[in-house]
Amino acid sequence: MRYEIEVQLTDIREQQSKLPVELTTTAARLTA
């Protein structure tokens, strides 16, 4: 059970870390 929770937490962290990158790429597209 604890292992599943840890995996879910890491998935959420990975998604959160990917979000700023996506935002910057879309912002770069808008400015370009």
What report would you give on this structure?
With 32 residues, the chain is mainly alpha-helical. The chain is built from one helix and no strands. It is rod-shaped. The N and C termini lie far apart (47 Å). The mean pLDDT is 81.
Brief description of this entry?
This protein is mainly α. The protein is 94% helix and 0% strand.
Give start-end ranges of low-pLDDT stretches. none
- Provide the structure class: mainly alpha
Which word captures the global form? Answer: rod-shaped
Radius of gyration: 14 Å
Portion of residues within helices: over 70%
Number of helices: 1
Main beta-sheet strand count, sense and barrel state: none
Helices and strands, in order, run as: H
Q: Could you give the count of β-strands?
A: 0
Please report the distance between the alpha carbons of the first and last residues: 47 Å
Which whole number gives the mean pLDDT? 81
Q: How much strand? A: under 5%
SSE inventory with pairings:
Blueprint: H1 2-31
Please give a handful of descriptors for the protein shown:
32 residues; mainly alpha; 1 helix; 94% helix; 0% strand
